[in-house]
Design a protein that fits this description.
About 25% of the residues lie in helices and about 20% in strands. It is α+β, with helices and mostly antiparallel strands and about 280 residues long. The longest helix has 18 residues.
Amino acid sequence: AFKGYVDCNWLQIMEVGIDPSHASFLHRFFEDPDPNENYGRQFQFQTEEDGIPITKLMRDFDCPEIEYEETEYGLRIFALRRLNDNQMHVRVTNMFYPNVAVIPMSNDMMLTQWHVPISDTQSWWYAIFTSFEGEVDKEHMRRDRLQLYTVPDYKPRTNKSNNYGFDAEEQKSSTYTGMGTDINVHDQWAVESLGPIQDRTAEHLGTADKAIIANRRILMKAIEDVRAGRDPIMTVNQGNAADFRGPVSIDTVASVENWRVEWKNVAVERRKRSDWAPAPNIENG
């Protein structure tokens, strides 16, 4: 588990987490690192079947089709990249209402990240890393994150005061942003550059923003419910708390025709290989 400080409204951070297509641009790397040397880094692993580096896949198939399903916990979001006539890359992320994104880190690990307001214009993110088949290397992960964040204030060393480490030569040769290889820096720049509270009345959302649009509808409905004295989605109490289960996030390759079933089968098999996570009823989340 770890956390970090962000100098903007919590919803801006939340929305970058449920925008799967941004990764092909904001986190674009022109060369593919060795996945064995990048433990605990998102997008720095390979697909299970064909061994395609995720960085290459994101780069070569940069405009995924976005689909989503409304669930009892919020949204299940699919980023679909058709690799050829027969294969589909399926990346499943989740919005756990109102402020949690559950994201695949690799074929074995997933990230659950809460976006928590300090005030209207300042926020924390809290992250928990879950590994299905091997114990999380906590010391390695903590060491990596302490390279970017200071303690005890958990503020990023690379921030707006030093232009997020921008290097024009790096941008020409190795990364899309020119802001290093830590994607937390990329995300921090993207959400803070909008200002402390983004003026959403001036936006022009498109098809890549399907999940963001859906989340805002859920948020507005929840506001209406509270005003009317009704419980909004994901109201937890002593009677139902034990019923909630973490949603499944995964990154896999499936067939074009049957991907909706096959990604669930991959998730079940992953849990079967785990010594702590028995296979769940995927249909129920």
